[in-house]
Design goal:
Elements lengths: L1 H13 L2 H4 L12 E10 L20 E4 L7 E6 L5 E9 L8 E4 H7 L7 E7 L2 H11 L16 E5 L2 E5 L8
Parallel strand pairs: 1-5, 2-4
Antiparallel strand pairs: 1-6, 2-5, 3-4, 3-6, 7-8
């Protein structure tokens, strides 16, 4: 126990403790990524028609269609080719047999820089860790294939022999 206290005191004095602590502003963090895949966009043909949740589709809006995410879910979509990112609201559905992960409104696709190619590899992430908890509650035990939902807790210290090992992030669902 003394060794753990001494090591944590030493790390905090050296300022290394901040490197091991969970950041308060997560930004685009791989722990919040719930899915990766291919994004496409849709626009003119569906403009001013009703979406699956009843809203009127605006092709210049910041909305998206997804196979499984609940309507109203706000997600960050990051273009893995150029690093650009946007935040969109899920308000429409993709067909279950679609090979795309997400369809963006044309306005959202323009901000991601994918209009020329039409398709882009993307990472879809929730905005806060609480978003993962809400999705886990929503899906309960029936999480769709391809969604990566898991909770990460604060770092833990494990003492093995005389060496302290920091295990972070800890995935309680892995056990």
């Amino acid at each position: 126990m003394r060794k753990i206290l001494f090591l944590s005191l030493l790390l905090s004095v050296l300022g290394i403790g901040r490197l091991l602590a969970q950041p308060t502003d997560l930004g685009v963090d791989s722990t919040l990524v719930i899915e990766e895949g291919i994004a496409s966009y849709y626009g003119r043909f569906f403009h001013n028609r009703k979406t699956a949740n009843g809203e009127i589709f605006d092709m210049e809006g910041m909305t998206a269609a997804h196979k499984n995410l609940p309507f109203g879910t706000m997600v960050r979509v990051t273009n893995l080719r150029n690093g650009k990112e946007i935040i969109v609201k899920v308000n429409d559905r993709l067909p279950q047999n679609s090979k795309r992960t997400i369809d963006l409104a044309k306005g959202a696709a323009r901000k991601l820089g994918m209009i020329q190619m039409g398709l882009a590899p993307v990472a879809i992430s929730v905005l806060k860790p609480q978003g993962i908890a809400r999705l886990m509650d929503y899906y309960e035990d029936d999480v769709p294939t391809g969604l990566r939902l898991r909770m990460y807790l604060k770092p833990i210290a494990v003492e093995k022999d005389t060496t302290v090992i920091f295990a972070w992030p800890f995935d309680p669902l892995a056990f």
